[in-house]
Each structure stands twice: as C-alpha cells, then as structure tokens.
Fold each of these.
Amino acid sequence: MSDNLITITVDEQKIKALAGAFLLPVCLENDIYIPNLCFLKGMDDPPASCRLCMVEIAGEDEPVASCRCRISEGMEVKTNSDEILRLRQLAFRLLVSTNDGSCRTCIANHGCELQKIAKFLHQPLRTKRLRHIDRDYPKFINTHPFLIYEPKKCVLCGRCVHVCGQLEKGYKLDFAQRGMDSIVSLFGSDLDPASQDCETCLACTEVCPVGALSSKVKWQSFTAEIEAKAKK
Amino acid sequence: MLDQLLAALNETERAAVDEEEYNILRAVVDELLTFSRDISQLIPILQEIQGKHGYLPRLALDMVADHVQTTISKVYGIATFYNQFRFNPPGRNPIKVCLGTACHVKGGEILLENFERRLQIKEGETSDDREYSLERVACIGCCALAPAVVVGEKVEAYVTPSKVEGVITEIEVRKEMAAREQVRNEESQ
C-alpha cells in the first residue's frame, strides 16, 4: 500500500518515508539538501532536465536523477560522493555558461537559487572552464501586460510552464524555439484577454528560481531603486 | 471567429493587417473546417496553411489554437520548434544561405551575417518592401560549390563576403531591367 512507511538510508542517516514517494522531496524534508532547479513539489511527472539532483544508489550502475526516482525499502543513497559532486558541477557549469550573471542588478539577488547552488557546489557563477555563450536575445521581453521576462537569466527549468499549465485556462507561457535558442515564450499574451488574470495570479514569478520572470510592477520599482543607487 | 479576433486588435495592429493577409485569414477559416478539432491535427493544419499561403500569419495561429482547443503559446512553441514554419511572408527574392557541414566550414555563417547586415533583416525575416527574405538552410546538395547561396532558384557558388553586394546588385539590376521593359511595352502598345 502506498501509505506504508518504509526506511531508506541517505548518507548513513536513516529516514522513514511513504513508499513510492520521489527521493528528492523526501531528502529535502529531512534536511538533506540536494541541488535542484526544475523540480516542484507535487509534480507527477518531473522533467528531470536540470541534472543537478543526481545521486548514487547502491545496486544501480549509474547515477540517477533523484527527482524521478521512487524510493523503495532498504534503499541506500549517497548524495555527497566526489563523483556526484563532479557530475553536478559539470551540469551547473553548463547551465551558467549561457547565463549573463549580472547578479548585482538582478531582482533575485540574494534570493536566487542559482547563487545558492553555486555556493553549495563551490562553483563561480561565471564559469571559466566552458566558453560563455551570449544568446542572441534582448535583455528583456515585455510584451506581456503584467510580466517581464529576461531570457539571458532564464535557466529554462520549466517551473513556470508547469505551474501555468496547472491553471484552469493555463499555458499562457510555454517553451518556444529549439536548442540554444530555447526560451519561455509569452507569445500571444498581448492580444489574449485571458492574460488579464495574470495580474493577480503571478504564480510563475513565484516559482522562478532565478530572476527571469517577474511582475512588471515589482520590476519597475526595483530598477528605479537600482538606478537611484547607481546615481549616489 | 476572425471578426472577433480582429476586434481584439488595437488600431495600429488592425492597420497592419493588409488586404492580402485578410484574404489569407478568410481562406484559413474555410481550410480549418476540413480538419477535425483534435490536437493531433495541429502540425498537419500548420503545414496546410504554410503550404497554401507561404507563411503562418499571426492571427492564423490564434485561429488554429482555437480550432484544436489549445493555447496560442503552445501552438507558437510547436511551430517555432520546426524549421519548416515561417512567420513572415516570403520575399520576392528568397535568399537561402547554406549552412550544411561543408558550407559551414567554408564560412557560411559569415555570409549569413553579411546578408543580414546588407538587407537590414535577420535570418527568417522579410524586408519591409517584401523584396527579400533571408533563410538558413541545411545543405542544398552541392557541397563541392561551398559556400553556396540560393537566390530564388539560382545557386550561387563559391560565395565570398565581397560577393554579397554583387548578388544583391544583380537582383536590383534585373528588377530595373524588367521595369524598363514593362514601360517600353506599354509605350509601344
């Protein structure tokens, strides 16, 4: 039965949890931090796209993404081996190699998950080991009446697309383009009367782990603040 | 449906929908009726519209989204994923820069940049006078002539950045000659 409590071992710590739960949220609830960007609690089908939550499980040949891994009785998990750290560091470097890293003027500064993960993995936010790719996009896209999107800060985790899809009239935003050009697109929102709902919803801005999607009102007051500071 | 959409536009946007586009949209309304309202029909519908009219107008995407009961951002996301869909009407002189392996190695990217600068449009766009459109293609099958550019139906071989201006001038000259020819014909009649 799914409400059976089972015991798993994570980094020599015994944890009791519901059978069939995903490993990542179980660890997070028990104060074992595993870096993650694309996962949101309550997802039925995590995309496992950020590759930051890799862990080693005894008996598995290869590291697995903990966000998609269901726990089972007696599972032995290692989250802090050197191999895992290297794997996560590589995934992180790939992520930040397209990121503009302008933290000082970013609305998410100090509350940014990318900064938190950088600290956790001992990695700089501007990697020198991979060529930095400046994606051919404007600094921000503000076609939406209430949202502002900064493509160069976006890590394409898909959290915003997920929460928007959960809403009744969902999917006002979705991925567009392909490969290196991928962005989250607010296409059509300028004409769609349904985007009026966004003013009070703003669910996508709340789940954004970085400062890529923000409410226009907040963003404007923030930039005004930054400009005032710069003048001093 | 179409009238509703047009009513939702503001004035400048409505003015941007010219007669040509309006006629296309009218035709799309009828074309949509031949497809079932299932999401699996999305790509066939987009292919049909592009096949008949050469591109996907902005409002046609709205109508398609409504027809298959999904959102415009989903339709846009899917349409932008595939190279075969374009969102601007093709120009009278479509310029295709080959970026297949051989042309890439021989500097096709630089050519593309040169065309972009010369025509003041980006790849995938059409100039305001609808004279030129610029596209990147992946191998046109004549790698021995790399880097190659296709202007209309004609393949230009061994193109160098300095030849870009010549390619454009040739089109302009031909256009000018055709115009004079027409004037002469009219006079003689």
Amino acid sequence: MARAVTPSRKAFTTVVAGLLGLMMFFPVLWIFILSFKSEGDAIKAPMEILFNTGWTTESYGAVQERSDYFKHFWNSVIISVGSTVLGLAVAIPAAWAMAFVPGKRTKDVLMWMLSTKMLPPVGVLVPIYLIFRDLGLLDSRVGLVFVLMMINLPIIIWMLYTYFREIPGEILEAARMDGASLRNEVIYVLTPMAVPGMASTMLLNVILAWNEAFWTLNLTAANAAPLTAFIASYSSPEGLFYAKLSAASVMAIAPILIMGWFSQKQLVRGLTFGAVK
Amino acid sequence: MATKASRAAARLMISPSVLLLLGWMIVPLSMTLYFSFLRYNLIMPGDNPFVGWENYYWFFTDPSFKDAMINTLLLVGGVLLITVIGGTLFALLLDQPMWGQGIIRIMVIAPFFVMPTVSGLVWKNMFMNPVNGIFGHLASSLGLQPLDFFSQIPLLSIILIVSWQWLPFATLILLTALQSLDQEQLEAAEMDGASWASRFWYIMLPHLARAITVVILIQTIFLLSIFAEILVTTNGGPGTATTNLTYLIYVSSLLQYDVGMGSAGGVIAIILANIVAIFLMRMIGKNLDA
C-alpha cells in the first residue's frame, strides 16, 4: 500500500519527474509551437521564437495547398482502419475458438502465430515488392491494407485471445443452466463482455498501422502514400520549411497521440505478448 | 465442455488465420530463399541463372556488409543501453508518489506514438541542424562551435533519436513490472534496516530482471529493422556510416535492383532475427498457460 511520504519529498519527486517528462515531451511541444509561426520566424533562436514572434495559422493552409495534405491523411485513415477492421474480422473467430474451445495444440498454434511477427520485414521485401509489381498493387491502398493486416494479425489474435480468456467460464455455464440458447448466450452474455477487449485491440492496432513506416515507404509513391510517406518527402525540401514541416507533423501525430493516451495499458499487453504482467 | 461438433467448428474458425499467416510466411520466404541463389537483376533482362552461393559470397565480401553489421550492432546495442538504463530510472521515479502522475506519465510516453518519419525529420532539422536547430542556437549563444550532428557523429545521432522513441516503451513495461512488486516485502526490508541501495539491488532488480529481458528481446527485434529514421535523416551516409543491415538490403534490392543480392541479405537478416526470436518465444511460452 502507499507508504506515508513527507509532502516535501513528494514535491521534490514531482519537480524532478515533471522536468524529465517535459524533456521527453519537448520535441512534440516545440513543433506544436513552430507550426503556428511564419517560416521566417521558425528558424530564429528559441528564446526569440518564444517571446518575440507573432502567431499565425498560415502554415496549415500552405501544407494543404502545396501537397494536398488531406489526400494523404485519408490514405492513412483508410489504410490503418481498413487493415485493423479486416484483421479483426479474421482474428475474432480464431481467438474466440482458441479461448473457449482450447485443444491440445492451441498453445502451439498461438506460439507459431506469434513467431510470424518476429520475421524481419526486410527479409521479404524483395518478393513482396515483385508480387505487388506483377499484380499492379504497388502504390495502391488495397495492397497496403493487406500487408498491414498481415503484419498486425498476430498481435490482434494474441490480444483478443488474452481478453477472451479473462471472461469467466462460470458465467457461460450459469447462462446455460438458466436455459439460454447458444445464440442468446453469444449475443447477450459473451458479446457485451468481449466488446471492451475488442475496442482496445482495435485502438492499439490502428496506432501501430498508422505509424508503420517500412512498408508504407517502400510500397507507395504519390497516390497511396499515407502520412508516414508524405512526411518523408520533407527530407529533400525546397526553401524554408520548418513551419510547414511542423504543421504537417502536428496534424499527423495529433490523432494518434490522443488515441495513444487511452491505450497505455493495451500497449504493454499487445507488445509483450503476456511476458510481462 | 468441448464436444466433437464444437471442436470442428473451432477448427473452422481458426483456419482462415492459419492459412493467411502460413501463406504470408511460406510464399515470400521461399521466394527470398530461391532468389538468393540466382543472378537476378531487374535492369538486366534475360534469364536468371542459378549461381549457388555467389550472392552470399559477394554480400559477405562487400566492405559495406561489414560496416552494416557493425552499425547494426552499435545501433541496437546503443539504443538498448540507453533505453534499459533510462527506462529503469524513469520507472523507479514514476513509481514514487507525486502530484500529477497521470500527466507526467503521458508526457514521458508520448514519443512512442510519434511516427518514425516525423521524429527523424524533427530531430534532424529542429534540433540537430547546426545552423537553425535548437542545439546549434544553444551552442552559438554559449560561444561554442555548433556540432554538425549528422556529419560529425552520424550514427550516435540516429541512436539518440531512436532512443527517444523507445525509452517510453521500456519505461512503461518496467513500470508495469514494478507495480506488481510486493510492497510488504519492501516494507519488511525497510523495517529490518535495509538501505535503499540494497533494497533496489536485492529486491527490485531481481524482480525487474524478467521484464528487462523482455524489453531487450522485443526491442532488439524491432531495432534490427530500423529503416525510416535512417532514410529521412542520412540515407545511410555519410558513406556507409549509418547504413544498417536493413538499409543495406533496401539499397541493393530497391535502389540497385539486385534481387539476388538483396535476397541473400534478406536471408541473413531473417537468421539474425530468429536467433533473438528463439529466446523471446521461450519466455512467452513459459508464461502461456493455455
């Protein structure tokens, strides 16, 4: 239980931890500030930027005008949500079956599924690239939805499995004793208990797919490029671009930061495969 | 409770996932393996003869391969060192009672949710640029010569950027592990007069050992595949100073169109990752009581 601590010690801890937190968060805070500055102001000395420059939203407009920002934003939405929803559709039955009707080999199957996640993407870059070229899937959202679904499928199955296993079997038995049919059991007993787990799984995997930057960079060009690839185009910029890069970055990470704050717990569950509790 | 019918249904429900993952694994993997034994370049038309171990031979004797392996080791090792030590310290700190713990934790974790291309470019331009970056401004205001990060310490710069991204992950995992520590044990040790150092060394660290191992294994798997941060900051340069194995394979296959060579590199990358994966899978397996 929480031990008694003197207020002065608590205050000290708060200050130290707060400063460290601020240091970690500072780059995000800084691009947020720069995104509301003019290009000329954005390269000034930090103190001058903070206290001696005006505010403007012109960069946000410029980003959209220069490169059709929202097309890429939509690509990101479609690719991350699409791959996650498709992955859930495939994974829910599998996780359900493994959690509620475990067999002798369930553990082996689950372990094998996880092991596919350990495959380095670069090991299959060439074949996937060639297959995509031959099928005309390069620079297409359909192709990326499929690839990202496959990459995250092991994580989705794993997370759902752990959530489903937390549903106590006694409740199902009780429902059955009370005469619930299998259909009613699934609709009225299982589903309400499984929905929060599914939502958390979806959240984390949308985040992972949104930030995925190996396949999105290698398999897209102008058309299907999501924000990861679009932002990369700022690595060879023309003229002053700090404010525009900041504005584009803020819009690219803001939705995910907000979602991320809600999914801290799922992060541990989803990325350690139950090895840490 | 499981009847024969429900077992059959279960198998039917699992099979789409199994088939998809099986296809995703076997098809590209066997193609990579097959290509790695061919002389196969996309800009040189004609048939692609079987050449045995030639690609592997060229890949291993290419001086950039040695550089790439060393860079990969330094990158993975450097980031692990920073994130594990930093993560342990952060976790110990965040585990203490304080005001505004939720907010502070959110600020610490935020970098993990920033996409790799954004963190690469923001650090490169807004911080590490010798003229316009914050570090540059800071150095000049102190009368020092600004450091040109990406030409003077290119690999270390990448290590710093990637560490910033992964420190939250290590912190979060270790914090989770720390919170499952039996507080009574700590209190008992305190009452018996154990100092903070010995409580840390004999109680907390052994408790954290497992979580630290997991952090190391999982991060290694991801860190072996670092790509976007290198692509947007240095393109592997100057020379091969920041080319890791992943980037080298990308260069030979997608920039030089050498399918055979890229595939040989891919096979090597898979073997490397598997060595780590075996240990990780063993740890996961032990914890899984299915």
